[in-house]
User: Fold ABC transporter ATPase from Mesonia maritima.
Amino acid sequence: MLVPFDSLPDEARIWIYQSNRPFTEEELTKLKPEVDQFLEKWTAHGANLKAGVTFPYNRFIIIGLDQEVNAASGCSIDASVHFIQSLEKEYNIDLLDKMNVTFKQGEFIAYKPLIDFKKLVKNRSVSPKTIVFNNLVNTKEEFESDWEIPLAESWHNRFL
Assistant:
């Protein structure tokens, strides 16, 4: 059951998939209905899941699930991962590689392999105030408060 992402409760579980590049407007026109269709049919043991999606910065796919209605099962999570993998192939993008960092450089959204990000920190191309995307947040409430945070306040601070 597809619902607006904003209508999900603060406790909703979220999954963040960051793209290695921005989606084009043409891709978003096709991608959004595909994701909506998947979420409309997404189930756990035959029960509908109440889920929403958002696409911040045309760079992320963020799926939220109201687990008060029905919780995700191993099979439903597997189905969502397979769906994301199909999007990777269809759009020739990386969405599941967690060894990359996405961060802001002014108004620009940058995406770097972790090893390159460490080098940027070392040569001070990014600072403790650089805004990074903390894709480890688990709930909608954490997403809204702790997703875009200064490097110094994130798990990335170990590179400082």
The CA atoms of residues 48 and 125 lie 46 Å apart. The longest strand covers residues 60-66. The two ends are 43 Å apart (CA to CA). Strands lie at 13-18, 43-44, 47-48, 50-54, 60-66, 100-105, 108-113, 131-133, 148-150.
